[in-house]
Design brief:
This protein is α+β, with helices and mostly antiparallel strands and 230 residues long. The chain is built from 9 helices and 5 strands. The chain has a 5-stranded mixed β-sheet with strand order 2-1-3-4-5. Helix 2 crosses helix 3 and helix 4 runs antiparallel to helix 5. 29% of the residues are buried. The N terminus is likely disordered.
């Protein structure tokens, strides 16, 4: 009886998506549609939740490796999820992915605002302010002092980025920067100057809002603001 119920539930998700569009299913339900089935010991709902957490916490190069650690996901399913993520990333790249103002970055990182853990991100950009990538630097860092410049700038250097935008979410729902946020930002700006990479902003995300240090004149080095507005 349980197997019939699970099968019917899965079919309902597909039918609802067909009737209402792909924006209708939740993120977990989208993963369920990709996976197709779970295992006897790992129901598809739980497997999809675990897979979604891996997606949120992993960067593209390590995604398949991390998915394969989950019971119930083999090479085929891991590749299916990774392929879906990659095509989405490619289609949402330039020309839409360009930063003319801080608000332009928010749609590309907004999905991290709804997570229950704090995610610290680094967005790499070209000299023309086109988005190269969104990189997860660390997860669950309640103290910004643990974020190190070498971890923040690693991917930006590999991609020959000209600028970066720092982002992190506040699961508490309050997007006002803390003293630690401001101190860490100043440290990153100092490191960026040595590397020849501009820090264009530090954006703090919540489910319903965001706070831009640049927009509030809290980003060290006002010449960066003038530079962006040119």
């Amino acid at each position: 009886m349980e197997k019939i119920y699970k099968r019917q539930e899965k079919l309902n998700i597909r039918e609802l998506a067909l009737s209402n569009g792909m924006a209708y299913p939740s993120n977990v339900e989208l993963i369920m549609m990709i996976l197709g089935s779970g295992t006897r010991r790992m129901p598809i709902e739980i497997l999809a939740e675990k897979a979604l957490k891996v997606i949120e916490d992993s960067n593209p190069p390590e995604l398949i490796h991390e998915l394969l650690k989950l019971e119930g996901i083999g090479t085929t399913k891991a590749l299916m999820i990774a392929a879906a993520m990659e095509i989405g990333r490619r289609l949402n790249r330039n020309p839409q992915g360009r930063m003319n103002r801080p608000a332009d970055i928010v749609p590309f990182v907004q999905n991290y605002a709804i997570t229950n853990q704090e995610h610290f991100l680094c967005v790499s950009l070209t000299g023309a302010r086109d988005i190269l990538s969104v990189h997860v630097v660390c997860v669950g860092a309640s103290n910004m002092a643990v974020v190190r410049p070498r971890e923040v700038f690693c991917e930006a250097i590999k991609e020959h980025a000209s600028a970066i935008v720092l982002c992190h979410n506040h699961p508490s729902g309050h997007c006002t920067p803390s003293k630690e946020d401001l101190m860490m930002t100043a440290e990153m700006v100092d490191a960026a100057m040595l590397l020849g990479i501009a820090v264009l902003d530090h954006i703090i995300l919540t489910k319903n809002s965001y706070f831009s240090l640049l927009e509030h004149n809290l980003l060290p080095g006002f010449e960066l603001k003038d530079k962006m507005e040119q």
